[in-house]
Specification:
single chain, alpha+beta, 18% strand, six-stranded mixed sheet, 20 helices
Length: 655
């Protein structure tokens, strides 16, 4: 494409030329070869927005969209891809910014409303609180603020094809167009942008005996064979895999390109006769080649930036290509309409159902993780009065307890260590500026997790080390009642997550209370702490496909009193077979097995609000916690923590 001042690609109607622009964009996005990256002096917010608006005029766009994803639609991002944070200072994992020639606005959901308020500069940004009555959607806002005939620009690699189509149709109702630009405007302005990561790859071995450290449970060749069956059934020549966790799972490899997420930047194309891996070729060493051989697969490696050229090879052969509904507009537009087969990710659905080795590893990892959390909670109780423990120092101590556990690799996310009013910020992350002292005067919420070679963990406990108020005890107990209702549920195979979401909220709804986030998310096996499917949310989403045996999900209702405190209880549960006499007419009966083994603070429970059955469930759970975690504490010579655990798991009763 000519290097002119006004360069853009028109979406929907410009599929013939988008490939050229996307090719340039991909090389730019992945290799960081922007010709503006000379002076790395940090820029002010005003400078950043002024320069972006100047580029918008060059590209003939009236508005520019900056999402919080990378080219693989990842939730958690490498430093290289944190464009939204760069232009807004907002560090939440979900949000979308829109910059116009006159203003700028950020949309984020209720998990991040308080956080965004604190982080946005109101002189430059307007916060749009999604879900609040009267707040316009992004579509509505654009239609209200743009003159007819405007063009809205976006990066084709950073918007899914389904979202691109939806937004393009919405904008067209006002006579506007959504277009894809050949270069990302934030990347051009971002002069001190961190380099793209390309760390070493880690093979996973199949577990045949206890002597193996890494676990996968199924050879890559078997997974590829399953995928090729799907190719045949869809009469397709190849499938393009763009999800990073899907690629790691498919090839039984792990990486470290995104902090706390054992994935690596890559694409994969699988055909009946070939596996093409697009990644940094330098990391395909002898160890990785031997791994591929032991997995029974032959892999051809090409550079990461050649993905569109690789797709083009299959397009020229005339066959159909399967792509995921979450794939980028860049990939979607590079395949002619009559050669596209777009489905919900086949691999994501397969990966969500853990095999027996993965399930066993998850259970064992949670026991070790439970020991770490118990040791931390005991330590905190013993030192809170004398050691000036803060949110950050507490989180660091918890990491220390995790790091001594067998098979520990890293955390699974930055701990949400939140005391008092900070706990009301659902996805709060302490900083040096916000780091609060933990005392006995309010509720402390700790949401954390670990990455182990044999599993991934995610747990939240809310505790009060002093005297909780009556309202705090009531709200904790109502959250607990919803939490326990899921633990004991028996349900037919593939029951929708919306059913469980309503069940978890009922005790809160009874008194007009609620929480502004979903009730459950899937979790990977030494992969992402958030995995979809499954999904336990109030709305019908593509990932809400219904629960099946050996899916793992979180169970995490909560309550948040703004500027006062936050409460959340979270365990990881496994979907298992249930013994129901009628088996739902042969459909299959399922229930949940709780993997997390850490006591629930009985001090915060208002037993008068609990049923006899709920009291019994808590007591039986605590018996199990002591039985499974206690021996490990003694093995680790954490005798004081063992005594503390015994006290925390004493039976409760209704007076």
């Amino acid at each position: 494409m000519k290097n002119t001042r006004k360069r853009y690609l028109i979406g929907v109607s410009a599929l013939l030329i988008i490939a050229v622009g996307c090719g340039v964009a991909l090389g730019r996005a992945l290799n960081g070869d922007d010709d503006s990256m000379f002076d790395d002096t940090p820029k002010s917010m005003e400078e950043i927005l002024t320069e972006i608006r100047s580029l918008m005029q060059d590209y003939s766009v009236t508005a520019y969209i900056v999402p919080s994803v990378d080219a693989h639609n990842s939730e958690y991002l490498s430093l290289h891809d944190r464009r939204l944070q760069y232009v807004t200072n907002f560090t939440g994992s979900a949000g979308t910014a829109i910059i116009t020639l006159e203003g700028a606005a950020l949309w984020t959901d209720s998990r991040y409303h308080l956080q965004a308020e604190a982080q946005l500069d109101s002189a430059h940004w307007t916060l749009m609180k999604e879900g609040v009555p009267g707040v316009p959607s992004r579509d509505q806002w654009l239609l209200e603020h743009l003159p007819a005939g405007s063009q809205v620009g976006t990066d084709p690699f950073l918007i899914s094809s389904t979202e691109f189509d939806r937004l393009a149709r919405a904008l067209a109702t006002g006579g506007n167009r959504l277009i894809t630009l050949e270069r990302n405007l934030v990347d051009i302005v971002w002069n001190n942008r961190p380099a793209q990561t390309a760390g070493p790859l880690i093979p996973l071995e199949i577990k045949y005996s206890e002597c193996y450290l890494f676990f996968s449970g199924k050879r890559s060749s078997e997974k590829i064979a399953d995928l090729r069956v799907e190719l045949a059934s869809n009469k397709a020549a190849a499938i393009v895999v763009n999800g990073l966790d899907e690629i790691a799972w498919l090839l039984n490899l792990r990486g470290s390109d995104i902090r706390y997420n054992p994935v690596f930047f890559a694409y994969v194309i699988v055909s009946p006769s070939q596996i093409m891996l697009f990644t940094n070729p330098d990391r395909i060493n002898e160890t990785i080649r031997d791994h591929f051989k032991s997995e029974g697969i032959t892999v051809n490696v090409r550079d990461y930036g050649e993905i569109l050229a690789g797709i083009e090879d299959y397009v020229e052969d005339g066959g159909k290509l399967i792509i995921a509904s979450s794939c980028s507009q860049a990939i979607y537009a590079h395949i002619p309409a009559d050669q596209r087969v777009q489905l919900y990710s086949i691999i994501a659905s397969k990966k969500a159902v853990k095999n027996s080795v993965e399930a066993e590893g998850m259970r064992k990892a949670h026991v070790r993780d439970g020991a770490a959390v118990v040791r931390y909670l005991h330590w905190l109780e013993e030192t809170v009065d004398s050691a000036n423990v803060t949110e950050l120092s507490g989180a660091a101590k918890l990491r220390e307890f995790r790091s001594v556990q067998e098979n520990f690799v890293d955390l699974s996310f930055t701990a949400i260590s939140a005391f008092g009013s900070n706990g009301a910020i659902v996805h709060y992350s302490p900083t040096e500026e916000t780091d609060a002292l933990i005392t006995r005067d309010n509720i402390y919420l700790i949401d954390s997790g670990g990455q182990y070679w044999d599993g991934t963990t995610d747990i939240t406990r809310s505790i009060h080390m002093g005297t909780p108020t009556a309202f705090q005890k009531e709200t904790f107990t109502r959250v607990l009642k919803g939490f326990l209702s899921l633990v004991t549920a028996i349900f037919p195979n593939k029951t929708s997550g919306t059913f469980f979401d309503a069940m978890a909220r009922r005790a809160l709804w009874d008194v007009g209370l609620d929480y502004g986030h979903g009730t459950g998310h899937g979790i990977g096996s030494f992969l992402g702490v958030h995995e979809y499917p499954p999904s336990i949310v109030s709305s019908t989403t593509p990932s809400n496909q219904g629960l099946q045996e050996n899916m793992f999900t979180s169970n995490e209702p909560g309550y948040y009193e703004a500027s006062q405190f936050g409460i959340r209880i979270e365990d990881i549960v496994q979907v298992v077979k249930a013994n129901a006499p009628h088996d739902f007419g042969g459909r299959g009966a399922l229930t949940f097995h709780t993997n997390t083994v850490v006591p629930l603070q009985t001090k915060l429970m208002d037993v008068a609000l609990m049923s006899e059955r709920e009291v019994e469930i808590v007591n039986k759970y605590h018996e199990r916690v002591l039985r499974e975690v206690g021996p490990l504490l003694l093995e680790q010579e954490a005798n004081d923590a063992y005594v503390w655990l015994g006290k925390q798991t004493q039976p409760i009763g209704k007076s």
